Amino acid sequence: MDRLDLDYYGIRITITGPRQILLMLRDDHDGFIIPPAQKLNGSLIRVIIDHKTISSPKGKPRFKHKHYSIYYQKEKRILAYPDAIVVGDYSFTRYEVHARDDIVAYEIVHHLLLTTIGLHLDRVGYHRLHAVALEKKGKAALILMDSGMGKSTIAAAFLNAAGYKVISDDLVVCHEGMIFPFVTRIGLREKIAGWEGIVRKRGEKGARTGESDRGEYRYIIPRSMYKKKAADKAIPRLLVSCSGESQKKPAIKQVQKIQMMHELFPHMVLGASIPQGLGYFLTLSLDDMLDKTLIVARRAECMLNLVMKCDCYHFTRVKNISLNISCLKAFLDASLK
Fold this sequence. Notes:
By secondary structure, the chain is an alpha+beta fold. It contains seven helices and 19 strands. An eight-stranded mixed sheet has the order 1-2-3-8-7-6-5-4, with helices on one face. A six-stranded mixed sheet has the order 12-10-11-17-19-18, sandwiched between helices. Strands 9-13-14 form a three-stranded antiparallel sheet, sandwiched between helices.
């Protein structure tokens, strides 16, 4: 069994498992890897991956999701997938992932890390926002879009744009007035010009894939392959919401800050579109309830600070992706000087 050590803004993770899975995770989390020479003791989160076959628990699940079911057994929280089992504790600090297929194990660990790291980051003041974040000259533009609206496509397109870097294509973390990356790989449904050599689909040699909620295979650009075009932090300057679709042409107009707060509140404060796990707000004790109430209050404070620092806009898109990207680029060129 090999070992991979990661550090996300002080949240330390140790993953042990088959070498091939760890290499894929290493590619995605490039930049958060702890050098082998630096010892990692007392890790906060431990993940163990193996190929054991474990049967699903008996009885009725506590929660049922379209992709998995959750069972509570004494001091264990069990996630039962069709072809894998995850056993974790209630403190979200130790997991065992049992899956016979490497791709399945890799995908489960990837999403497990998104959820678990996010929970612990909340407690130390790093709060997540569902947005594509682009950087130019140290300034960030955050574009708020629902899943499936093209955040990753926009991010991948800006990898080819001179003067721009990508902070994240899906999730960022906000901390003390700065924006930092969280999700580290870019997942696409279609190839993007200029990246055909590194974007691969499942079934091709050496390929890795994610699977969207719609069950479609995506192309993956690991962070290690675009790290020269990746930004590690930026000062937020623009907040751009996106909803609706025009039949004419894309347009961007300025909106009031109170309107942007209405857009942000369900996503950033309540976590409607961030990976935080089923039953996140189902409190297990009085201390747990107070802990999560404090987290919500801190998220709200972070949201207010973010909105007050940024100019706020609304983007009305069209079906033509190229027109949307051209409109955004012209706007950002003029705004992020």
